[in-house]
């Protein structure tokens, strides 16, 4: 059944993409421009400021970063929601490879999200908001509610939300320095000036990911399993809490002598007129 749904999605969306992507009755295009402008203004944010554990001096790590950026940019070239989602998943796996190559250890969920924010800032993918909305509106719901595709897509939404709300406190900077960097009047110093302060903003995802203490570093696979289980329970709870309301209809026989006769007006009686 899953394969059939995927093929139906590919056939239908491949032909209706132009009509359904960034439709005129939405503000998707306006938000695309706002997100693109916001990311462009944050070009000065370094990987050290985000505390992302990635060492781009390592050739294999740098290659994984470039591949992640390419996959995220390629998101806009796909027509089918499943193919767009696959770009997000490939990008995320390259990020995991980059983190593992830098740390020489398994990537944790707390390493993944700040690195994803960095990749989004560097890629500044075209029509990012519209692509996220297109996937949300038309992708097979079961694909978004379970598995690694749904998990990585949720994190992309979180990364965009963080970028939209990023401020001086998020990067542990003074308000004055942040405004100078945003206006282009000044540039931040070298990597030594970078400090911790990354805060995970998970307000766009539904349901929100479980908060973790800063000292916890769990493998990403464990976080993925728990997220999938939580999604399934959430969906089941919604279905049980809002049962479908049905109306019982009363059966009757056509041409019956008694079809709600009590509520009908009396029959017309023939009358004779003197001629």
TrEMBL record:
Entries under InterPro entries matching the protein: VPS9, Vps9-like, VPS9_dom_sf
Stretches the record annotates as Disordered: 256-275
A Pfam match: VPS9
Transmembrane segments: none
Residue stretches making up the VPS9 domain: 29-172
GO molecular function ontology, one term from the record: guanyl-nucleotide exchange factor activity
Alphabetical GO biological process terms: vesicle-mediated transport
One GO CC term on file: cytosol
PANTHER family hit by this protein: RAB GDP/GTP EXCHANGE FACTOR (PTHR23101), RAB5 GDP_GTP EXCHANGE FACTOR (PTHR23101:SF126)
Protein name listed in UniProt: Rab5 GDP/GTP exchange factor-like
């Amino acid at each position: 059944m899953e394969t059939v749904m995927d093929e139906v999605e590919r056939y239908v969306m491949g032909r209706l993409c132009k009509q359904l992507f960034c439709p005129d009755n939405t503000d998707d295009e306006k938000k695309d421009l706002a997100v693109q402008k916001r990311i462009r203004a944050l070009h000065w944010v370094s990987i050290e400021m985000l505390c992302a554990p990635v060492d781009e001096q390592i050739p294999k790590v740098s290659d994984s970063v470039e591949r992640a950026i390419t996959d995220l940019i390629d998101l806009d070239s796909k027509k089918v929601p499943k193919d767009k989602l696959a770009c997000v998943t490939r990008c995320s796996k390259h990020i995991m490879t980059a983190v593992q190559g830098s740390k020489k250890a398994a990537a944790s969920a707390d390493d993944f999200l700040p690195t994803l924010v960095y990749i989004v800032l560097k890629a500044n993918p075209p029509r990012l908001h519209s692509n996220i909305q297109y996937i949300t509106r038309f992708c097979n719901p079961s694909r978004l509610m379970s598995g690694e595709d749904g998990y990585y897509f949720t994190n992309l939404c979180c990364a965009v939300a963080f970028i939209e709300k990023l401020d001086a406190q998020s990067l542990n900077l003074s308000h004055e320095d942040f405004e100078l960097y945003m206006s282009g009047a000044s540039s931040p110093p070298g990597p030594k000036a970078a400090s911790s302060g990354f805060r995970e903003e998970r307000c766009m995802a539904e349901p929100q990911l479980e908060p973790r203490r800063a000292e916890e570093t769990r493998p990403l696979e464990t976080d993925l399993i728990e997220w999938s289980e939580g999604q399934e329970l959430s969906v089941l709870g919604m279905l049980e809490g809002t049962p479908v309301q049905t109306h019982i209809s009363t059966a009757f026989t056509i041409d019956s002598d008694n079809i709600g006769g009590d509520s009908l007006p009396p029959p017309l009686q023939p009358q004779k007129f003197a001629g």
